[in-house]
Amino acid sequence: MAEVSVLNMEGQEVGKIELADAIFGAPIKSHLVHQAVVLHLANMRQGTQKAKTRHEVRGGGRKPWRQKGTGHARQGSIRAAQWKGGGVIFAPVPRDYSFKMNMKEKRAALFSALTSKVQENKLIVLDKLAFDNIKTKNMVKVLDNLKVEKALVVTKGRDENVVLSGRNIAGINMIPTNNLNVYDILKYQTLIITEDAVKAIEEVYA
After folding, report:
1. Tens digit of pLDDT for each residue in 101-150?
2. In angstroms, rounded to a whole number, what is the distance separating the alpha carbons of residues 184 and 118?
3. According to the model, what pLDDT value does residue 1 have?
4. Torsional class of 138: left (φ above 0), alpha (ψ -120 to 50), beta (otherwise)
5. How open is the CA angle 190-115-25, to the nearest 5 degrees?
């Protein structure tokens, strides 16, 4: 098992914690990590774009001029694609971009992302993260103590004082363990996770 230091909010080492190899020491499967990121981005797409084809554009029922003898090219409708105000050829329509990965692939991708943070020494484990009141400077002080600028902060549950203290800080995102995903882990340079969150993850995926 990988052993990492446990820090307090002052940035001081207060102990050690052993991380489960099955989760934080798994083989890195880059193709599944890539697929998980594509899945996340695809599921975020609204897919509400829409343009009208020639049969949806109002008007154009009358032939603009007779077929022969005018010197112009033959035309059947002023709502054809080559006309101003005409329809769009192969127009985009509302669609669902989402797709699915099976559970084993999702887990393997998540374990790969967590393992990469451990191998790159970009994983910081805190003994706890709690504030008595809502102050942005509280979170700023913790980040300064940890010497971190851009980070994903993972807690066991949603603590309103922590979330509201850090939501206005650029480059910082805070999520509970049940929202942990590959995209956010890779997006942020450092992964800050509380000790109880580590245990919660290991219990879920044990």
Report:
1. 999 999 999 999 999 999 999 999 999 999 989 999 999 999 999 999 89
2. 15
3. 66
4. alpha
5. 145
- pLDDT tens digits, 152-193: 999 998 889 999 999 999 999 999 999 999 999 999 999 999
Separation in Å, CA 162 to CA 140, 145, 204: 11, 16, 23
Distance spanning both ends of the chain, measured CA to CA:
14
Q: Which residue has the tokens 């897919």?
A: 47
Helix/strand/coil percentages in the chain, nearest 5: 35, 15, 50
Number of H helices, E strands in the chain: 7, 6
What is the 8-class DSSP label of residue 178?
A: G
| CB neighbours of residue 27 within 10 Å | 8
Side by side, the strands of the sheet bearing 2-7 are: 13-19, 2-7, 123-126, 190-194, 151-155, 172-176
Position of tokens 């669902």? 96
At 186, list the tokens.
């890779």
